Amino acid sequence: QVQLVESGGGLVQPGVSLRLSCAASGFNFGDSSMRWIRQAPGKGFEWASSIDSYSRSLNYGNSVKGRFTISRDNAKNTLYLQLNGLKTGDTAMYYCVKDPCVGYGSHCRGQGTQVTVS
């Protein structure tokens, strides 16, 4: 089954950078579009960024565009999200998601990694 394990989160000050990683297994990662979503305390899921299987199509939500960069290494079955210029509003649990993922259910997303900007 799909297994996604995020890492790289932490408690940082505004302006600092972080790189999140997501180790994938249980499916053909190289054939799968992937995305990062996030959930701030008390709020719903927010889409942050998406990438197709060959890294040809990269898309970003308005709130992260110009600051975050998504990438992947298909040889390592790993998805990344580079977070630059972090703001307090970026505080959230960040999840790696295998597309398609209806309702962002736990069967197609990882357990998350917490990013706190304060």
Walkthrough of the structure:
With 118 residues, this protein is mainly β. The protein is 0% helix and 47% strand. It has no helices and ten strands. The radius of gyration is 13 Å and the shape is globular. The mean pLDDT is 96.
Number of strands: 10
- Counted by DSSP, the helix tally is 0
Output mean pLDDT.
96
Order of helices and strands: EEEEEEEEEE
Order of the strands making up the biggest sheet = 2-10-9-4-5-6
Shape: globular
User: Percent of residues in beta strands?
Assistant: over 45%
Could you name the ranges where pLDDT drops below 50 across 5 or more consecutive residues? none
Rg on CA atoms, Å: 13 Å
Q: Could you give the distance between the termini?
A: 36 Å
Main sheet record: 6 strands, mixed
Give me the oligomer status. Answer: single chain
| Structural class determined from secondary elements | mainly beta
Q: Name the helicity range.
A: under 10%
Per-chain topology:
Blueprint: E1 3-7, E2 10-12, E3 18-25, E4 34-39, E5 45-51, E6 58-60, E7 68-73, E8 78-83, E9 92-98, E10 113-117
Parallel strand pairs: 2-10
Antiparallel strand pairs: 1-3, 3-8, 4-5, 4-9, 5-6, 7-8, 9-10
